[in-house]
Amino acid sequence: MRPRTRRATFLTASITAGTLALASCRSPEVEQQEQELGVFFDTIVVCTVTGSTHAGMIAGFAGQQRPRRVLGIDASATIDMTRGQVAQIARHTAELIGLGRDLGDDEITVLEGWAGDLYGIPVKSTLEAMRTTAQLEGMIIDPVYEGKSMAGLIDLMREGEIGPDSNVLYAHLGGQPALNAYSGII
């Protein structure tokens, strides 16, 4: 809510107040929670479609003292376009928040392999991740976004890309309202 007008600010998929808010608020918020918990999240996993959330996190966390990986799991099924969007938005956001340096290509990671052929259509790994997460963690995730990013996280851990000693922060961005539209397949 905007403090003076009490009107909601909508977070959209571009270089907007939403991306800047993610860049400037998420990293201090996470740092505070890390201090309270006595942990450092060396890897952050987030679903990536339009790129603004992922890009805001990349830019925001790039200004911290300790390096960490911010891994975006593509759910768009348009990987090249998504990579380009994330890079463009992250670099512009870094400039707007005064990062003071250019973001390197190695800081912008969008991983593919879990989106399937079409946006919004769950694949086998999506449904398996949804079931596993619900059964083991009691966490409800959707088949469009979080189901795909969780499938990616599970595979990255199984394959050793994310090691057993890593501390992973999984960014759950919502999506549960979509569950009703998919009731016949989940």
TrEMBL record:
<keyword id="KW-0663">Pyridoxal phosphate</keyword>
<keyword id="KW-0732">Signal</keyword>
<comment type="similarity">
    <text>Belongs to the ACC deaminase/D-cysteine desulfhydrase family.</text>
</comment>
<feature type="signal peptide">
    <location>
        <begin position="1"/>
        <end position="23"/>
    </location>
</feature>
<dbReference type="GO" id="GO:0019148">
    <property type="term" value="F:D-cysteine desulfhydrase activity"/>
</dbReference>
<dbReference type="GO" id="GO:1901605">
    <property type="term" value="P:alpha-amino acid metabolic process"/>
</dbReference>
<feature type="domain" description="Tryptophan synthase beta chain-like PALP">
    <location>
        <begin position="35"/>
        <end position="172"/>
    </location>
</feature>
<protein>
    <submittedName>
        <fullName>Pyridoxal-phosphate dependent enzyme</fullName>
    </submittedName>
</protein>
<dbReference type="InterPro" id="IPR036052">
    <property type="entry name" value="TrpB-like_PALP_sf"/>
</dbReference>
<dbReference type="InterPro" id="IPR001926">
    <property type="entry name" value="TrpB-like_PALP"/>
</dbReference>
<dbReference type="Pfam" id="PF00291">
    <property type="entry name" value="PALP"/>
</dbReference>
<dbReference type="InterPro" id="IPR027278">
    <property type="entry name" value="ACCD_DCysDesulf"/>
</dbReference>
